From TrEMBL:
Keywords from the UniProt entry: ATP-binding, Nucleotide-binding, Transport
Molecular-function annotations in GO: ATP binding; ATP hydrolysis activity
CDD domains linked to this entry: ABC_NrtD_SsuB_transporters
InterPro entries named among the record's database cross-references: AAA+_ATPase, ABC_transporter-like_ATP-bd, ABC_transporter-like_CS, ABC_transporter_ATP-bind, P-loop_NTPase
Chain ranges of the ABC transporter domain: 5-234
Protein name, per record: ABC transporter, nucleotide binding/ATPase protein (Nitrate)
Family indicated by similarity: Belongs to the ABC transporter superfamily.
Keyword flag GTP-binding: no
Amino acid sequence: MTVAISCQQVSKTYETRNGPVNALSPCDLEISPGEFVVLLGPSGCGKTTLLRMIGRLHDHTSGSLDLTPVEAGETTTGFVFQQANLMPWMTVEENVALPLRLKKQPKATRMETARDLCSRVGLENFTKSWPRELSGGMQQRVSIARALADDPQLLLMDEPFGALDALTRTRMNSELERLWMASGATVVLVTHSITEAIMLADRIVVMSARPGRIVSETRVPFPRPRGTQIENTPEFQAIAADLRSQLEH
């Protein structure tokens, strides 16, 4: 099951002690079921605000925002943030199984699912490890596995690899693409990395500085799976240059 997203003139204003702050100008955005969309823009432009409104973590101030499952039923959403936010007193497999535990699935069933997901993200040898024993990249793999545990139709990711070194980030992009292709989920990812956006997205939505507004949408033409070799192609460089120009202006 996948989900479509429709944002019509969605905006967000925060009330502060110094008066209202317009974080997001009215935005129109349509996302198809199973699509991988990246929100690209400078820090503070409202990318995270829009993502959190899509995930029902924040209310929108005006406009309409609808999530429509392709099949009847409740929309299941997985979240991955920049910090892995793992439970330090739980093992890797226990962290991955947490969403299923909260849904009161039988222990044997949820642990089997957790071990399968650990294998899918390359952590089959670390299921009994504690979060403190893992590198930053490994912790983020646990976070992604946990987000996938409930087989979400919608996966929302807020700069999940922003704190990682360049090499680890590249590897995680490849792993995320592989997992998404297997899951078929609708994905919305926030980043300020042009390279990451091109490597992962079906479509890149560029946002302006605050108050954020959508200034363009770019479809990425490269076939999947995408390897790092495409970064050296004239087509990749042209898209990157165009996106960089939009962000600068």
